[in-house]
């Protein structure tokens, strides 16, 4: 069995949804289909949740009504069969009744998670109505019955496997199984989610749980590209990447894949394919245990980075200084991305500034602290790039008139990271496209 995950834009228009059904028809093996919410829906639900949290029920109601209209139009365009349409209409009404009820009860974080779950519940149920209409035999496997996370919000792969196998056992005769991405139950049994973009994570967890032949991530771009197509003129899709390379790229800014979705596939050796619904025959990107070749494959950028420099006279020849620094970040559950040290100072970066004030306050006990906001990490990724001839010369030879704030090299053989002020990001990506790939 294979896993096929379709993102928001792949289900976001009635004709696209129909197109997915036609793709399923062409499969030679059974498929477990993971769907995101229709594009724009989760954002709208986040806004509605925020409106209710701020006790602005009037705006919440307006936003609920606008979303409701969107779904009414959607099913009218998707379905022609009277019975399928009636079924879809009832589903839409049921979910919007729920949102209206929510308006009347007091807000809580748990309730907010229920609001956010409506998108995937709606998209999968509506898709199933379309499968009814075209006479496809399928089963809908509710993610809330098998996808669970523990107290630390980590997925429980063991029990996911057991529950999912039981469900699949009940539907052995079906070639199409449909489930929701993103949503899950937490340790308290409440509805929860795998964070924004988490449908990719669902797909790879499910693929690992059922030992799928492949985990296909279908989007609206033909694979992972060597650079950001929004910023440079010419890019090309990368045919093959190792899990390590893909993890670096996903983490450092390639938006196409949720970074957490790499580990389940890597651990259970499930190949991942990034494919384009609009060009189903294009090769896309294959991610496996092997890197097809050495050398630089891609550059990616991650925005909204904070650089923190801690300078201390006492660091000179002292031991235990870094431990004290790291303990502060551990205390505030804030991951560090890049780090560089000199004899008297250490610079590091974080992307989560939620506890920045407290962190800085505690770091000030260790030395002088400087924070630079609005930085960007530009990361150069490839297999064993440390062994690539003259890589450093080529990399720095590509860069003109851009002040580099930090460089991190050697942490892994697959990555070199540069930190620059955000205003230099586009220029740096363009210069690297020219210098590293010979493209404009
Ligand atoms: N619908 C969720 C989101 O927009 C999950 C996903 O699409 O991956 O974040
Ligand atoms: Mg996504």
Automatic annotation (TrEMBL):
Record field: catalytic activity: L-aspartate + ATP = 4-phospho-L-aspartate + ADP
Annotated metabolic or biological route of this protein: Amino-acid biosynthesis; L-threonine biosynthesis; L-threonine from L-aspartate: step 1/5; Amino-acid biosynthesis; L-lysine biosynthesis via DAP pathway; (S)-tetrahydrodipicolinate from L-aspartate: step 1/4; Amino-acid biosynthesis; L-methionine biosynthesis via de novo pathway; L-homoserine from L-aspartate: step 1/3
Domain Aspartate/glutamate/uridylate kinase positions: 2-276
Domain Aspartokinase ACT span(s) in chain numbering: 378-433
One Gene Ontology molecular-function label: aspartate kinase activity
CDD domains tied to this protein: AAK_AK-HSDH-like (cd04243), ACT_AKiii-LysC-EC-like_1 (cd04912)
Pfam hit, one: AA_kinase
Listed EC numbers: 2.7.2.4
Entry keyword annotation includes Transferase: yes
Family note: Belongs to the aspartokinase family.
Name of the featured protein: Aspartokinase
Organism: Niabella digestorum
